[in-house]
Amino acid sequence: MTQHIYDVIGVGLGPFNLGLAALTEETDEIDGIFFEKQQEFNWHPGMMIQGTTLQVPFFADLVSLADVKSDYSFLNYLQQNGRMYHFYFLEKFHISRKEYNDYCRWVSERLSSCQFGFEVTQVRPIESQGTQIYEVVVRHLSNLREDIYYAKNIAMGIGSVPSIPDHLKGLGDSVFHSSEYMYKKEIVERAESITVVGSGQSAAEIVLDLINQRGTSADIHWYTRSHGFFPMEYSKLGLEHFSPDYTNFFYKLPQEKKDELLRKQDLLYKGISAETIGEIYDALYEGTVGEAVMNVHLQAMSEIKTIEAAEETWKISGQQLVSTDKFERESDIVILGTGYEQAVPHFLSPLSHEIYWDEQGRYEVDENYALKCDLHPSIYVQNGEMHTHGVGAPDLGLGAYRNSVIINSIAGKELYPMQQDYVFQTFGVEKTNRKKGTHVIR
Fold first, then answer.
1. Cα-Cα-Cα-Cα dihedral sign, residues 237, 242, 244, 248
2. Listing from the earlier edge strand, what are the strands of the sheet with 114-116?
3. Alpha helix locations (H) across 51-96?
4. Is 240 exposed, middle or buried (CB count within 10 Å of its CB: 0-12, 13-18, 19+)?
């Protein structure tokens, strides 16, 4: 075979694979190319609501937590764009989504390995000079021409897809997932009644935007099955769950223990930021000064059972889960803040019989983020391993660490150094100094 064989081909260019591309660009030992079917980098454009911020500090950029000297850091982006002093005087640790998106675009435009407008349609294992590699079929979406590339490893960074309960799917243009919110602003602005379902950050940001924009002109209802509109855990020791130490502890647990833990950790990653809750309350308080009326209704512990067409509106039927009382409501618009789920990409179909799946139909993933399978070269997964590696899988703050592990695994040596201890607490048994028998804090 005379064709070029890459060390890694990346499929998808969200923040995680973009970070992998940036870190591989800065080492001469990994040769990679990355394909994305969209025409440009655009991170959750349907939720790019004015004023929304990341839920992690700016240090959780694409590269800094692996290599603070990288040319692709957020601070270098500021410096190269003449915004360093502006950011300094801003005095904010959490940057806006709008600026994070612009930063990622800035990086993607500087990486020759990032190819936009290309869709990976198939991945097949083949033999090359006695070694197994991958043949990757890539379609150029501008002219539908297909080309073939070869790689020793694959990195999947395809992201998650909107999750909608089966009984709420396919109802019409005015019942839609929160990920479409900015695309639906025109019909939202015309609606007289709006219903939001869900208790996460996306639902809360939409409700806040609706209160600010439509609080006195529309009937707004917000329902959630959760016990309340609670803040996400954001204490300093709580945040240590999003660390390599916790990931390593979690990975070594039996799968039944992992699943049990994840069910109890919702507020580590599914709640609402305390700042957003405060802003919602402040908006409601200010909007009712002087006996003014805001037609906004917040109701927790409530499940939406059915949504049915009723002339030009939707008839919503639900139940209060504690009192078991039933309720009904009519609404012009229904916005489903029902989260996201992992999807198995279609290009893996020819390999599905080679991949190991657990009893719940999920990937089995090894400690280095590679799918467990009968294939010798690795298929690495980005943000598809919460069930094996814990709550930090979708967290931007662990992206650079995971990419360091993947790069070191591909290279077969440590190109990006790994620390021994990242946090102050111990998730397993206590660390002790064996000579003195005393507790050690590094």
1. positive
2. 114-116, 32-36, 8-11, 154-156, 379-381
3. 74-80, 84-90
4. middle
**What confidence category does residue 2 fall into, taking pLDDT thresholds of 50, 70 and 90?**
low
Task: Tell if the pTM clears 0.90, that is, is over it.
Answer: yes
Residue the block writes with tokens 């033999």:
127
Q: Where are the domains of the chain?
A: 5-160+342-411, 163-232+270-336
Tokens representing 328?
A: 């009904």
Domain 5-160+342-411 superfamily per CATH: FAD/NAD(P)-binding domain (3.50.50.60)
Sheet containing strand 326-331, edge to edge, reads: 302-310, 313-320, 326-331
Q: Return the pLDDT at 433.
A: 53
DSSP string, 223-248: E-SSSS-PBPP--HHHHTTSSHHHHH
Strands 8-11 and 154-156: parallel
Whole-angstrom Cα distance, residue 276 to residue 282?
A: 10
CATH of domain 163-232+270-336: 3.50.50.60
What is the tens place of the pLDDT at every residue in 249-275?
A: 999 999 999 999 999 998 888 889 999
